[in-house]
Amino acid sequence: FIWKVVSNEIVEVGRRRTRMASSSRTLFALAATGALAAALYFYYDSLTSYNTAPSAPAASDGNFDQAKSFETFASYIGMPPKAGPRRFAVGLNSCVDLIVPALEVFKALGAEGVVEGKDHDAIGSLEDLQETFRHFFEKGGAGERFVSNGELFKSIVSASRGVKAARNFVGGNAALMGLTIKNKVKSLPQGEEVSVLMGGGYGPELKNMLSSHMILPEQAELEVDDYHVILEYPSGAKWGGVTAPRANRFIISHDITNAQMKTLELFQPALESFRPEAVVLSGLHMLEGENPAFRSKRLNDFVEMLKKIPKHIPIHLELASMALEPYVKEIAEKVFQYVDSMGLNEQELELVANSVNGSLGYYGNEYFGGGRMGLVGGM
């Protein structure tokens, strides 16, 4: 993740909130690759075309100065704005990442990969896992899926822990962004501090990793940690008769705390007492494995939380790998209007564009292919 500042026009992207004044409310974004492209896309292909809310006010002169935006962005890489916020609240997904070489784990599981690549919304069997992994592996694409079979996930974790190169790290976008923000204290003027409230759940191991870096609400403490298995592979890796065109990772979890956003109701009162100057949110992708009715209810609950955040406090939303277009469209229609900035990569941007009938959709098997970045950036 990187710090960046973009121009005031992007503030107008699909939101009902009060316009930000550049002198007092610098728009910040802690974003994955492609966030600026996302902002540009939604500026030109307005979300208001399918939003029932009134259109957001136009930019001051009706024109977007792309060169100026990139110049401003470049000047802030690696450091927070000197006049920027000092109190951050981050939520909602956090976990322990178990990072392992993918092919060694599949070998331990006896999975040879002799399957056809096929994407699954959720993984219920070892065959589902192989098919979904191959779907991303053969294109070199990043992916993340929920494992609906708890016993299967336990067996994957057991096999992963048996791999010599396995290692544990802080996981979950919220926790990682919180650490990134906190670590930027080195670039602040002497004597200044950054405070970070982490609104995700945490067990004993994650608490040990985070407690010296950020504020952890007692109510969010868990008896055991939630683990995500990060299956990594290098460029040129061979599995099941195919070769990965680039290095990437595939993430799996059986994480009920994050999948059902169980810390959401704890986060709101913590926000009110902490009084943040900026809010950074992620974890909506974890709801994808739930049934549509539950997913919609929790998304509505999330929106209600956003509405309670004072309008002068900027909100950043970080997206992640998803597969269900109807759910992505629901996020776009319900959530985007309440946030000030978004982070997403080129794959996620293309899925969002496709879900809302944007100007650039899927191109069959080229979805993860080389050369797509230029097209996505051109949106």
Describe the structure.
With 379 residues, the chain is of the alpha/beta class. The chain has 13 helices and 15 strands. The chain has a six-stranded mixed beta sheet. Helix 3 (102-109) crosses helix 5 (150-161) and helix 11 (325-334) crosses helix 12 (346-355). The longest helix is centred in the last third of the chain and has 17 residues, at 292-308. The chain is globular, with a radius of gyration of 20 Å. 44% of the residues are buried. Residues 1-79 and 361-379 have low confidence and may be disordered.
Q: Which characteristics define this entry?
A:
379 residues; alpha/beta; five-stranded parallel sheet; 17% strand; disordered C terminus
